Amino acid sequence: MRVIRAPQQMGQAVDRLRARGQRIGVVPTMGALHEGHCSLIRRAARECDAVIVTIFVNPLQFGPREDFRRYPRPLATDLRLAASAGATLAFVPPAASVFPPGFQTRIAVGRLGAIWEGKVRPGHFTGVATVVSILFNLTRPHRAYFGQKDFQQAVIIKKMAKDLDMAIDVVICPTIRENDGLAMSSRNFYLNKDERKAATIINKCLTQTTELIKSGIIDIESIRRFMKEKLSEEPLITEIQYASMYSPQTLDELERAGKEALLAIALKIGKTRLIDNMIVNP
Ligand code: AMP
To answer: How many domains does the chain have?
Structure first.
């Protein structure tokens, strides 16, 4: 696997791949890679001729009181994991080459970016969409791989690619979990032992709510109440930001579970913010 830092070199590498007719897959990440990221890289390696993993902790998507500075950056391990999952190129641009002095353009994502995460993290998806479109322009992929774990992000990127005619196939891949069901996340590293144990309540809540819906309880009030009660069993939860049932297409709250419903949760355990979701087909 070749490691590229300069955007100009990335452009040249992509020129060569495209000249040879190779299909390019890109997996954008912020590093601190785990099995969730690796599953995206492996899928890209199966479906594409060349796989570019981008590793960039994007300052634009962090709020002023968020964890940008302390976000983990274990680059040597990341490169080893990316290579063994099948990446052919790692793109690790310095922040100053992505956002040089005077940079001022932003992608506005509209309604989809203002709800859910957008309510709690204003400007977050503008930051995500802006950096992802820069990374798309630098890597010019045929396909781009995102995790269902960040469902809203995947939906927004899919919509952006379509609205802006980017001709990139956005692929959403399943959430990879620890043995006890906790969705893998770079932020799980922040949890101490008790908090790590407490975090399993998220998956328990999602799976039990799925069972409730499958048993025929499909109205939003019952589902919201059940999720809230389940989560309140865990004393280490310091804040529940959202926990409800939504349409996977519009991300609006669903009055009744229909053919497909999405359960999504965002909460804090201690100071650590965790999100997860599950699709239910009742
Ligand atoms: P991040 O490094 O957190 O920005 O994530 C990079 C990509 O990996 C995003 O598309 C995430 O949705 C995806 N991802 C993160 N965690 C998981 C997981 N547990 N399973 C599948 N994909 C994931």
So the answer is: 2
Whole-number Å distance, alpha carbon 13 to ligand 1 midpoint, is 25
Residue with tokens 């919509």: 159
Which 8-state DSSP code applies to residue 150?
G
Give me the CATH number covering residue 168: 3.40.50.620
Report residue 122 CA to chain centroid gap.
Answer: 17
Spatial distance between the Cα atoms of 180 and 233, rounded to a whole number of angstroms: 18
- pTM score over 0.90: yes
What is the domain extent for residue 64? Answer: 2-173
- Where does a domain end: 173, 200, 215? 173
User: What is the C-alpha to C-alpha distance for residues 109 and 116, in angstroms, rounded to an integer?
Assistant: 13
Asked if residue 111 and residue 58 are part of one domain, the reply reads: yes
Look at the alpha carbons of 61, 55, 274, 280 in this order and tell me if their dihedral is positive or negative.
Answer: positive
Render 109-160 in DSSP notation, one character per residue.
-THHHHSTHHHHSTTHHHHHHHHHHHHHHHH--SEEEEEGGGHHHHHHHHHH
What is the residue with the minimal CA distance to atom 6 of ligand 1? 29
Query: Residue 223 is encoded by which pair of tokens?
Result: 């589902």
Residue 92 CB neighbours (<10 A): 17
Same domain, 151 and 39: yes
Segment-wise mean pLDDT, segments of 10 residues, the chain, 282 residues: 98 98 98 98 98 98 94 97 98 98 97 94 97 98 98 98 98 98 96 98 98 96 98 98 96 94 98 97 87
- Residue to probe by mutation, ligand 1, list 34, 40, 61, most atoms within 8 Å of CB: 40
Distance CA 262, CA 282 (A): 11
